[in-house]
């Protein structure tokens, strides 16, 4: 099975929880992380070999090496970022969580519910 290349938009609290879950996954790899400033993205990816730092959400969404994007921005910005991702041709994969969009031009299969080893359910068990 080919690993899903994950991009994370944002470098805050949730990104710091998600990124370490991607690292050991046999189904996904952290490909890129974006922030409003390149310096913040570079600081974040320093702990994740192979991940690329990107300035801005739109640049991450447009990357050819990113299959799925987790929108890890403050709630007030999620709708705007998701709208821009959808306008760029991405598809939304969510269960109440505004989180994952995929690049439909490059990624046509379903995202496994246990992509990071845990069911994607929007809640904790």
Q: What percentage of the residues does DSSP assign to strands (E)?
A: 15-25%
Which stretches are poorly predicted, pLDDT < 50 over at least 5 residues?
104-112, 117-125
Overall 3D shape: globular
Order of strands across the biggest sheet?
3-2-1-4-6-5
User: Main beta sheet: strand number and arrangement?
Assistant: 6 strands, mixed
| Mean pLDDT level | 76
Query: What is the CA-based Rg, rounded?
Result: 13 Å
* Estimated structural class: alpha/beta
Element string (H = helix, E = strand): EHEHEHEHEE
Query: Percent helix among the residues?
Result: 25-40%
End-to-end Cα distance, whole Å, is 27 Å
DSSP, total strands: 6
Helix count, DSSP H or I runs of 4 or more residues: 4
Structure overview:
This protein is of the alpha/beta class and 125 residues long. 29% of the residues lie in helices and 24% in strands. The chain has 4 helices and 6 strands. It has helices at 13-22, 38-45, 57-61, 75-87, and strands spanning 4-9, 28-35, 52-55, 68-71, 90-93, 100-103. Strands 3-2-1-4-6-5 form a 6-stranded mixed β-sheet, with helices on both faces. Helix 1 (13-22) links the parallel strand 1 and strand 2. The longest helix is centred in the middle third of the chain and has 13 residues, at 75-87. The chain is globular.
Q: Gist?
A:
With 125 residues, this protein is an alpha/beta fold. The protein contains four helices and six strands.
Defining key terms:
6-stranded mixed β-sheet; 4 helices; 29% helix
Q: What's the helix and strand layout?
A:
Elements: E1 4-9, H1 13-22, E2 28-35, H2 38-45, E3 52-55, H3 57-61, E4 68-71, H4 75-87, E5 90-93, E6 100-103
Parallel strand pairs: 1-2, 1-4, 2-3
Antiparallel strand pairs: 4-6, 5-6
């Amino acid at each position: 099975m080919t690993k899903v290349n994950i991009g994370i938009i944002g470098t805050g609290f949730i990104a710091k929880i998600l990124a370490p879950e991607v690292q050991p996954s046999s189904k996904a790899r952290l490909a890129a992380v974006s922030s409003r400033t390149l310096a913040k993205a570079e600081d974040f990816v320093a702990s994740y070999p192979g991940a690329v730092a990107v300035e801005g959400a739109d640049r991450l969404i447009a990357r050819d090496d990113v299959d799925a994007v987790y929108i890890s921005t403050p709630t007030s910005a999620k709708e705007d970022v998701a709208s821009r991702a959808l306008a760029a041709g991405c598809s939304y994969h969510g269960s109440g969580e505004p989180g994952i969009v995929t690049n439909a031009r490059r990624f046509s299969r379903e995202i496994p519910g246990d992509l990071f080893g845990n069911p994607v359910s929007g809640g904790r068990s």
